Fold this protein.
Amino acid sequence: MKKTSMKMGVVALAVVAVAAIVSLNVTARAPSLKVATTSSLYDTGLWEYLELMFEEKYGVELDILCVGTGIALEYGKRGDVDAVVIHDKAREEQFVAEGYGVGRVPFAYNYFLIVGPPDDPAGIKGLGPEEAFKKLMEEGAENPQQIKFVSRGDESGTHAREKAIWKAAGFNYTAVQESSWAKAEEMGYIEAGRGMGPTLLMASEMNAYTLTDIGTFLAYKGKLDLVPLVEEGQILLNVYSVIAVSPEKHPDTKIEMASSLIDFLTSSEIQELIREYGVKDYGMPLFTPCAGAEPEQ
Amino acid sequence: MTEIWDGLIKAIELIISLDPEVMEIAGRSLRISGTACLLASLICLPLGSLIHFHQFRGKRVLINIIQALFSLPSVIIGLFVFVLFSRAGPLGELGILFTPIAMIIGQMILITPILLGLTISALSGVAKEIVDTATSLGASDFQITLLVLREARYAVVAAVILGFGRAISEVGCALMVGGNLKGFTRVMTTAISLETSKGELELSLALGIILLLLALIVNIALYRLQQR
């Protein structure tokens, strides 16, 4: 008797498990489009705003993976997502050239900012980005306790831009990482290894400088004790592009749905919404739409 | 400190108002981790008994390895499951990466060593006299197995509770193989991680409190079950 009741118990538990899996809605879902997007775009809330509109219009689920540009491209290369939305032109072009992406379609842009503590201990306010970095390095090496910089340090698009600015300022990036500023006991140059939002929060806690896109900065502004110090310079242009993952490498990727997403993002209706996004909450737009064309430098 | 207080108030608000999104995420956490724990128990309890009741070469080493795997970090399992189910990986064709199924598999792997190891030690804890008495009274092997399981049931249930606790509280694997997709693979821990990164500390704390309450309810339920 005991034996049968135990068997029944096992069967009952198995049934419960199957029911739980079914209730997780794995198979009954509408077809889904998986998009890996840079955290700086996600943290502004833009995706949550656009997601429902896209889902209603095309009858598909839009699954947004919020990650850095580095891992987003890796997902694309492995065929784990159908499209990537990122902001690192050099790596995007490489991704397309290597045959992983179908084409690079810019759809909006804004600017990077160097932000820092309101009292600006390094005195970089109003400088050009390259001069500002040079000054941060000089002052930081002398006084790493006061002058701090939090780098994303995660191979994201913003991190790539930071490296580009260091290069333009005359510093090899490894030289920055090995500098007395970074190696000082009171580390002055810090690699956070986190998304844009957390990096800003960390910089604010530490009274440090950081490089940020303006969108995330405005979205987080209320929680930060940081002010924009450097906002002008060619090198600060920040272009967001969408790339459909090529079905040639991974036949299972949903190229048609990905194309719909590109059409959607570059449509005049959505471009207008992107232009107005954030005006109500932040008093100024977070993005400038640029429907498929590279913005003028 | 005000954050903790505000978090507590926020948690109460979210619970009283039955905030639909929070309820949905809590339900999903419960189902994913509950299923993982259930399936892993169905495999591990018999397997653990099998290991306990059989003598074979290398048994001690096997048990040592199982116990060493208690320390396996969830992010390593996440990485392993990711590489396994990524489209470029060996099981990529199943297309289950970034679904709850992948999360269940990851959590099952995570808690398997705990369930196996603790089942074995639970059974080992049963007094030898009981087995000897039963044997001298002419009990069959199967009857002895059942007897020992019965005697060890409190410790076995404790193993299951611990396994469930590890599953519902892990974040590394859930984030990596689930992807924290809104409305599909977002669970309590990944939601807490996201809200914290947004700087929404109160909401994060509130979600943490709700997660604890959830664990408490499950514990009480399992405790009552073992009382029967």
About this structure: Chain B touches chain A at residues 28, 31-32, 34-35, 38-39, 41-42, 86-89, 92-93, 95, 97-101, 104, 142, 146, 179-182, 184, 194, 196-199 (CB under 8 Å).
